[in-house]
Amino acid sequence: DTEVTQTPKHLVMGMTNKKSLKCEQHMGHRAMYWYKQKAKKPPELMFVYSYEKLSINESVPSRFSPECPNSSLLNLHLHALQPEDSALYLCASSRVGGSQTTYGYTFGSGTRLTVV
Amino acid sequence: EDQVTQSPEALRLQEGESSSLNCSYTVSGLRGLFWYRQDPGKGPEFLFTLYSAGEEKEKERLKATLTKKESFLHITAPKPEDSATYLCAVQEHRGIKAAGNKLTFGGGTRVLVKP
């Protein structure tokens, strides 16, 4: 299995809703990531989990809450979002690099989020 | 802070018309430079990793090269199916133990190949 699976593919939510995005991989990767991508812009890093622990939070607003229940799953809990949060949310995974090595990501297909 | 700049922003090619995309980067120490292809509404698809100046990698009609300041993605005799956005990303050395492999992406080059 060489895929990262994201659900749902599309999500429309109101500003008062609570929803969750899910990401799953079975490649044995111990680093998992959330990226946000606006139209015609590059992906922007939100969170990094390494060995199921949050290692990087790129000053993301608290209305986005990540969770890594186990080594295969990554969730992004959403609450009280704003219309400007509408974007493609990408999950990725990779092996954890050492001081002399690095590894590329495998990305999921993303969740297209629209906040109304 | 890492800086990654890609040029041109957009490229229109005729089928068979070879061209090159540029990725200029500024990092204190490069651990790796990555090329990805992204189709509309999809996640990026991994193409290449380059680690040191002088390194080259090829895959079908694509060839990536790396110098100390920039990388090029050469597209030889492109076909319409090569139309996509090509993203460059870098990872910087962050000490003995990296806290996850953070990648910083450039703005991308949108390539359109017309038949």
Give a written overview of the molecule.
The complex is a heterodimer of chains A (116) and B (115). In chain A, the strands form two sheets. In chain A, strands 2, 4, 5, 6, 9, 10 and 11 form a seven-stranded mixed β-sheet that branches. A four-stranded antiparallel β-sheet of chain A has the order 1-3-8-7, with no helix packed on it. The mean pLDDT of chain A is 92. Chain A has strands spanning 4-7, 10-13, 18-25, 31-37, 44-50, 53-57, 64-70, 73-79, 87-94, 106-107, 111-115. Chain A has 116 residues and is an all-beta fold. Chain A has no helices and eleven strands. By secondary structure, chain B is mainly beta. Chain B has no helices and eleven strands. Chain B has strands spanning 3-7, 10-14, 19-26, 30-38, 45-50, 56-59, 62-66, 70-75, 84-92, 104-105, 109-114. In chain B, strands 2, 4, 5, 9, 10 and 11 form a six-stranded mixed β-sheet that branches. Chain B has a five-stranded antiparallel β-sheet with strand order 1-3-8-7-6, with no helix packed on it. In chain B, 37% of the residues are buried. The mean pLDDT of chain B is 91.
Give a short synopsis of this structure:
The complex is a heterodimer of chains A (116) and B (115). By secondary structure, chain A is mainly beta.
Order of helices and strands of chain B, N to C?
EEEEEEEEEEE
Structural class of chain A: mainly beta
Mean pLDDT across all residues of chain A, rounded?
92
Oligomer: heterodimer
Major protein interface = A-B, 34 and 30 residues
Report the mean per-residue pLDDT of chain B as an integer: 91
